[in-house]
């Protein structure tokens, strides 16, 4: 694009210098066509530099990485180049609207520590004072023994199960409820009413086999972390003053020991508002290629 634009500019200079007054009328159509091409060229260049597909316009500038898993791709569609690597036998599957191969299937991750997708160099997440994660997930199988199922995390030891080795994590645990850990923990609320005779496995069953939108936010200045399910705020926790920061360590991992589907994972350098969470929840599945 840059080469074409410079060539057009050189053409205009030569055109204006060499064209006689009497010949100007004859050459005006060519000049108009060249100007139109230059305008289109600049427009396309601007769009390719700034637009993240599918993401609401108000959040475009805050996207650090975006993984729509389109046709099994593990590429970062934000344009920032934070592409994932697959260490597993997992692969693409239908998304929440039934579009084939537009979500990612973590079917073989439950019993294997090294079955995940990830990124070794996650330094783009260092030093953030505001941070949010948005994703869609659909757990499989109401099994009786549930480990800590990691949806997204940053960890020093990718093949270790020890929770204390996380810098932060969004995971499923304790009756398969979602939890966000970032110096402290904030939990999703029960779906089944508290005080009923429902067991933990009853809670697991209502959470299994359905798509849910999940968002987690961190705000250093407010000393708060929050978790949202399906656009609704579930809980807010205050970060202890002496625990307000965490070490920026380790890999970025998705789907470690998680049994289910995942889609449209967005990492952002801002604390999402309720309205912004809802905008991401209402976003159509990002299935880009035919």
From TrEMBL:
Q: Which domain of life is it from?
A: Bacteria
Q: What is this protein called?
A: Concanavalin A-like lectin/glucanase superfamily protein
State one Pfam family annotation: Laminin_G_3
InterPro entries from the UniProt entry: ConA-like_dom_sf
Keyword Translocase among UniProt keywords: no
Q: What is the lineage of its organism?
A: Bacteria, Pseudomonadati, Bacteroidota, Chitinophagia, Chitinophagales
What is a biological process (GO) this protein takes part in? carbohydrate metabolic process
User: Which UniProt keyword terms apply here?
Assistant: Lectin
Q: Name one GO molecular function term.
A: carbohydrate binding
**Which species is the source of this protein?**
Taibaiella chishuiensis
